[in-house]
Amino acid sequence: MSNALVANMSLHRGAGFSPRRFARLPLYAALFFVLVWPVIMLIAGSFRSAAPGFDGEWTLAAWGSTFDSPGTGQAMSNSLFLSLVTTLLSTLIAAGLAFLSERTDMPLRRAITPCLMLMFATPALFYALGYALLGNAYTGSANSLLRTLFGVAAARLDVETWTGLITVMVLKKASIIYLFLIGPFRALDSSHNDASLVSGVGQFGSFFRIDLPTLTPALTGAILLGIVAGLQAFDMVLILGWPQDIDVIATRIMSFINGSAPPDYARASVLSIVLLAVVAILCIVQSRLLGKRSFVTVAGKRNSQRRVRLGRARWPLAAAVAFYLLLAVILPIGSVVFSSFQPFPGIYEGFSLRHYRSIFALPRMTDAIRVTFSIALIAGFAAMLFAVAVAQLGRALPPRRAAALRFVSLIPLAMPGVVTALAISWAVVSMPGLKQLYGTFWLVTLALVVVVVPFAIQVANAATAQISPELQEAARIAGASAPQATMDVVLRLIAPSFLSGWFMAAIIVSGNLEVPLLLKAPGLNPIATVVYSLYSSGDFSAASALLVILLLVKAAIWGTALAGYRLWRAWRQYRRQRLLSEIAIWREEASAPVSRAVTATATIAG
Amino acid sequence: MSDVSLQGLRKHFTDGKAADTPGRGAIDGLDLEIHDGEFFVLLGPSGCGKTTTLRCIAGLEDPTAGRISMGGKLVADPARGIFVPPDKRAIGMVFQSYALWPHMTVFDNVAYPLKHRHKGLSRHELAREVDEALALVGLRGLESRGPAELSGGQQQRVALARAVVARPRLLLFDEPLSNLDAQLRQRLRQDLRRVHEKTGRTSIYVTHDQAEALTLADRVAVMRAGRLEQLGAPTEIFLSPATRFVAEFVGFDNLLPGVVAAALGEGRFLFQPDGWPQTLLGRAPAALRAGQRGYLAARSANLRLTRGNIPGTTNGPETESGTNFLPATIGALTYLGERFQADATVHGQRLLANLPLAAWDGRGELHHAPRWEHAHIALAASDAVILGDEAESAAPACA
Fold it and tell me: What is the mean pLDDT of residues B301-313?
């Protein structure tokens, strides 16, 4: 369906010959190849008897055998169960936190958003490892602490169980849903609430009768988002679920490829398509719901918003939130940092920097750091550039085509990284001349661009939407060509958003485990896969040290970007001052008759 | 030479509609000749296609069909695949939102067209040109400010300076004053006219405000649903509207349906409003024949309400003096400051009329109508415009 839309679009625009329309063709081609073609090839791949790039025949075999294969049904029901339970719990937590931080006078409220943003930016891998280090039944530091406090007989925590997995997933997912909800919570128009108060309903009654119904669309949207994310769960299950053999759809897809010999691409494709279809339906439902969201973001005067007075409940609630933040943010990150100095998990002496030293001594480790940052920066930049082009195109198109474009650009949102990686493999080997890409740095980068494109497009849309089309038109009227006008006006104005979008896309890319794991380019091991292999071979401390380095380098990049921005602003300020003084000097000159100025006017007039 | 010629211009927005039905803001076969050095105003209600026409001239929209030429050079002809992009059209434009670039100073904003349209100017020459343009709009000394640090009126002036700085052949204005308050608008109108006279360039100005059209235009084109409704000097449009639509749009608030009773020559006609026992004397800009259906249009300001009986004869128009007298009863009054507007009933029909303050001082009860036993309305024949029914008459009168 979506590919038909795109094909139709490009045909239509190409039909009337106009150089301006012709100029869009490469972008349409890129859109098609990057977003639509992989899905088509994924579907085609499910009917092939051989791996991508090998001779095989068309067959329906995989469609029958996938669902009969042992464990597949279990994996599907596991996915569904995990997804529903974690979504329900995390939405409750997220809504509670959003209410406390945006609508009440609770003491700790300002700490909530930064903490949960940090949590959101921390890769799931890091997070899962943090809890594994904390709650491993034998070596976890929390268990050591319990034993020290209460003796050997103390109850043991075990995070590598269903309960543990659900708890950790809920904590992580709550941060995503929270960030999704604070906007609507903040945008609640307090005058609606005031009207209810004036009508004689108390603060809490007004919240439940006025604010909550207003938020329903945002909440249902958040729930659907949570379910979609839950169905795609991968790295947490891989790390925390393996001792219990907990299998979900995404891990099952990977074991079809990585865990069987020869790799069973057809069955992996079938399962991917099933997942894709379910998620696509949910995404469509979600966009329908969110499409009607306009009444939620009522423009209220933010500073005039009255907060709910909690009274005596303030401090107990603050303590509860503090405990939550400790559990959800500080402990996992702290345990990774702590463990990177330990000789082994569970050993509380001989702290040293030796893991860091060994990382810098091993070429494979330094390679991982180098590869991660090249991939993250290139994929992030490419995704943002592509996203800006798509956003610009969306603004130039009439509404219906823009909607089709938006739909196409959201395709990867429905694809978990595992499916993206698989689909991209099929797509690349199907293109003559692109086969050589298979197993290289560039294929991994391309797949990661696809993974991060929906996020990038969201950033780019938000940024370009604020720029009136008249600004660009004014540049055209002033004599600038179309690319020049885009450069001078649009790119300059969205530069800050572009940079932060690039940075965040790079963070998402650098934390991605499934794409490099599945695409297995020989000799290409980014930090995520190295951490995973260190972890699965039991070298927790080295894995921790590598993750800490990853976090530090990210912070360094952010710092550099911030400093660069400050420098740029200072330079602009300087230029402005210089202009002022130049004008002053020039005025003095001009007060005396200068023949040069007259000739200048003559040149222009002629 | 910077005359602009539009021939059979069409622009359809197909999205969400059948391809052949012109949508809102579409243009449906427009022919216009705009002369060199003229201040030309496109006037019409929102959605009539005036802004689309301007954007087609600017090159910001490509027309569906028709031809646009500027200074004798074809700039758009979809049938022959000709489309000159806006940056190659030597135009200046003031946008409704001003469209000042927020990341550039006033100086940079005004210098931008010079940098692109006159490449190779030295910094010195550039500064001089910018200074001259800013002086023209009275903004010298604000060069290093950012657009956000300026008031609405100042932003508008910067936009004007940016439009004229590169000395384009053609200046385009897209409702540039609609975001300003009334007083400022009046001052900037005078400034715009002054700048036009000083630069001597052709200007095309889009507005829905008839007062702007009056003060600025050499010629006005009234548009309706993508077509030209009437073209002429401001006085023609405002005193002699050719159609009912134009009459209503330029403020004729009384419209009486009826039949043309007799042609008296020299553009004077007798008009029989439906159901009235008397006929009215009026004039018509177009030729009408007796028996033809139509409307008599008059501004309420020209219907003078007076106390007492109709002087002289009680019936029929005073053909000698050229004034119609109508017996009236007074309903509600609206206080308009310098006069009252009265809701009057004449032969069972509601009309809006003018009651001078001197005729009724109200004595502290401004909103109560006088209970006069006899009152009448005087309407000069020259203020009563008779229009043929569009369905019956041929094409709308175009110059």
Answer: 81
- Lowest-pLDDT choice from A398-412, A445-459, B78-92: A398-412
For residue B364, what pLDDT is reported?
Answer: 58
| Average pLDDT in chain B | 86
Q: Are residues A87 and A162 in the same domain?
A: yes
CB contact under 8 A, A583 and B144: yes
Residues in chain A with CB shorter than 8 Å from the CB of B103 are 492-493
3-state secondary structure A207-251: HHHHHHHHHHHHHHHHHHHHHHHHHCCCHHHHHHCHHHCCCCHHH
A592: helix, coil or strand? coil
Total-model pTM: 0.73
| Co-location of A33 and A170 in the same domain | no
Inter-chain contact B99–A398, Cβ cutoff 8 Å?
no
Interface of A with B (CB under 8 A): 16-18, 20, 398-401, 468, 470-471, 473-482, 484-485, 488-489, 492-493, 576-577, 579-580, 582-583, 586-587, 590, 596-597, 600-601, 603-605
The answer to whether the Cβ–Cβ distance between A400 and B15 falls below 8 Å is yes
Provide, as residue numbers in chain B, all residues whose Cβ is less than 8 Å from the Cβ of A597: 124-125, 128
Counting beta carbons within 10 angstroms of the beta carbon of residue A53, is it exposed (0 to 12), middle (13 to 18) or buried (19 or more)? middle
- Measure the CA–CA gap between B376 and B311, rounded to whole angstroms: 9
Residue A53 included in any domain = no
ipTM above 0.90, yes or no: no
Say if CB B21 and CB B197 are below 8 A apart. no
Test B14 with A400 for CB contact under 8 angstroms.
no
pLDDT at position B272 is 93
Residue among A480, A580, A600 minimizing CB distance to B144: A580
The tally of domains found in chain A comes to 3
Could you tell me the residue ranges of all domains in chain B? 4-239, 244-388
Of B60, B116, B129, the CB nearest to A479: B116
Mean pLDDT, chain A, rounded, equals 79
- Let me know whether A99 and A82 are in one domain: yes
Beta-carbon separation of A579 and B87 below 8 A: no
Residue A153, in any domain of the structure? yes
Question: For B4-239, CATH number?
Answer: 3.40.50.300
Check which CATH number belongs to the domain holding A113 and give it: 1.10.3720.10
The answer to whether residues A560 and A587 belong to one domain is no
CATH architecture of the domain covering B244-388: Beta Barrel (2.40)
Burial A367-400 (b: 16+ CB within 10 A, else e): bbbebbbebbbbbbbbbbbbbbbbbbbbeebeee
Tokens at residue B386, please?
Answer: 């008779």
Contact: A482, B85; criterion CB under 8 Å: yes
Q: Which residue has the tokens 């497009």?
A: A457
Any alpha helices (H) in A466-594, and if so which ranges?
469-477, 482-485, 492-510, 514-519, 527-536, 540-591
A447: containing domain: 1-45+352-565
Which distant-in-sequence residues (6+ apart) come within 8 Å of B6 by Cβ? B30, B31, B32, B33, B53, B56, B57, B66, B67, B68
Q: Cβ contacts of residue A400 below 8 Å, gap of 6+?
A: B15, B16
Partner-chain residue, chosen from A579, A590, A603, that has the shortest CB–CB distance to B107: A579
Same domain for A185 and A266 = yes
Q: What is the per-residue pLDDT for A12?
A: 34
Cross-chain residue pair B85–A586, CB shorter than 8 Å: no
Confidence of residue B187 (pLDDT cuts 50, 70, 90): confident
Cross-chain Cβ contact B83/A600 below 8 Å: no
Quick one: A176 and A89 in the same domain?
yes
Chain A residues within 8 A of B128 when measuring between CB atoms: 586, 590, 597, 600-601
pLDDT value for B309: 78
Picking from B15, B91, B128 by the largest number of A CB atoms within 10 A of its own CB, the best residue to mutate is B128
Task: Give CA separation, B195 vs A45, B2, B189, B199, B200, in Å.
Answer: 69, 17, 10, 6, 8
